[in-house]
Amino acid sequence: MQANWLDQIKWTADGLVPVIAQEAGSGKVLMFAWMSRESLSLSVQEGKAIYWSRSRNKLWRKGEESGNEQIIKDIRLDCDNDVILIAVEQRGGIACHTGRKSCFYQQLQEGQWVSVEPVLKDPKQMYK
Amino acid sequence: MQANWLDQIKWTADGLVPVIAQEAGSGKVLMFAWMSRESLSLSVQEGKAIYWSRSRNKLWRKGEESGNEQIIKDIRLDCDNDVILIAVEQRGGIACHTGRKSCFYQQLQEGQWVSVEPVLKDPKQMYK
């Protein structure tokens, strides 16, 4: 059964699928990351977002260091079967490693990227 | 000036950047696509979403056939400078080529992908 729904996903040549994480309720887009077959399967089993870190080349249990876990409320697949959208409850209210709620805090304003969202917590305190 | 903000984006080896399109107001995530340097630059100039079609290998003016254009209200860049989030006003209320509002209409339910959003318009009528 599980293999079946995983097989319907069109994985990249690297065996990954892009994942958009959105805050349940507010609809705020928090971050964008990747999942492997294993990480998506584990995410469903545990009900928490577990990504695949392409830079570290290993499973990345979101919040394992910062405590800012993402509790999964909904999982969607797009029309081309190659992008996942998850709705999550963001523990700590912070998804970004910079200490901001969302990773999308740079807004284009007249030809410049301007940071428009506050740092809610010092990253040094998040990652001890 | 324009070259500057475009240079801050970390483009893929293929010269693209992933783009999440979200409906302004509702926060509904509508679709996921790619933009090239040229298509993003044109999107900003024209105030409408112009993607890069990887399958057709050319500029894709969203809505050019269906009329379902996306008017850009906000453009964000993430913390890693490699993902764009745009807030759009979705003309016609339909972003998906299947005639649904959002491309993310398949919901994971007990090990199965289930279509949970209605087809608002017959695709045959959208693409004559």
Folded structure, characterized:
Chain A is α+β, with helices and mostly antiparallel strands and 128 residues long. In chain A, 16% of the residues lie in helices and 37% in strands. In chain A, the strands form 3 sheets. In chain A, strands 2-1-6-5 form a 4-stranded mixed β-sheet, covered by helices on one side. In chain A, a hairpin with a 4-residue loop joins strand 3 and strand 4. Chain A is globular and about 40 Å long. The model of chain A has no long low-confidence stretch (mean pLDDT 95). Strand 7 of chain A pairs antiparallel with strand 5 of chain B.
Q: How many angstroms separate the termini of chain A?
A: 41 Å
Q: Round the mean pLDDT of chain A to the nearest integer and report it.
A: 95
Helix content of chain A: 10-25%
Q: What is the total tally of β strands of chain A?
A: 8
Can you describe this structure in just a few lines?
Two copies of one chain form a homodimer. Chain A has 128 residues and is of the alpha+beta class.
What are the SSEs and their pairings?
Two copies of one chain form a homodimer.
Chain A: H1 2-7, E1 16-23, E2 29-36, H2 37-46, E3 50-53, E4 58-61, E5 70-77, E6 84-90, E7 106-109, E8 112-115, H3 123-126
Parallel strand pairs in A: 1-6
Antiparallel strand pairs in A: 1-2, 3-4, 5-6, 7-8
